[in-house]
Amino acid sequence: MTSILRTGGAARLGALLLLAGPLVSWAAELVTAAAWTNPRYAPLYNWVSHLGLPEREIAFGQAADSPLAWVMNTGWVFHGVVLIAGAALLLDQRKGWRPIALTVLAVLSGVGVSLVGLVHGSNENVANGLAVFHFLGAQTVIVSGNVFALLAGLSAGRLGLGRSPGRTLVVLGVLGLIGYILFMVDVRAGIEWNIGLFERWAIYPIMIGHALLGAVTLTRQPATVLDKREAGAVLTG
């Protein structure tokens, strides 16, 4: 089966970036949530994007007070940038439609999560119309990110992942899309029960998928390069 991965140092850097993005974003979320004490941040109840609101306010029916909002916003932008760079370095876009599709999905996800960090969903931005970019970014990263995980899982052989990581990525993509549907029903129907739970249900599978893809390909890159060198030595010997 033809590999759609690059090899060498650039590919290892790409895999490392895919792994680093969600880890840094999670660390930023933990630090930011811990600093939010009035009222205390509730991960199952509060909106995720409220962690990035720089001012204390009542937004979408919830009190928001995030003194370290800049940490969360930086984490989101970092994740977006390294996701785009990592996919571009790791995937060989010359190898057909799969690496191209995965790269496009990574770019959409990266731009989406960066928009979430750059444009707040504050009352001020709702009033001036800028919040549309925040909502567009959130929807884009959730949909494209979970489709990325699903397609990566279905392309496991070409990514050199093996069956177990491939199946895990498929499950993550499906779970994330189910979470997205439940999240939208919760919001659109006005139920608004445990917003944070359903929002994370849609988001975390994406982040786990990026970390899994990065970690597995990172550990297997050196072995792939070594095998090719050994094969060349045998042929020339």
From TrEMBL:
Enumerate the transmembrane spans.
70-91, 100-119, 131-157, 169-189, 201-219
Q: Where is the signal peptide?
A: none
Q: Which UniProt keywords apply?
A: Membrane, Transmembrane, Transmembrane helix
Q: Does the keyword Acetylation apply?
A: no
For this entry, the protein name equals DUF998 domain-containing protein
Pfam families from the UniProt entry: DUF998
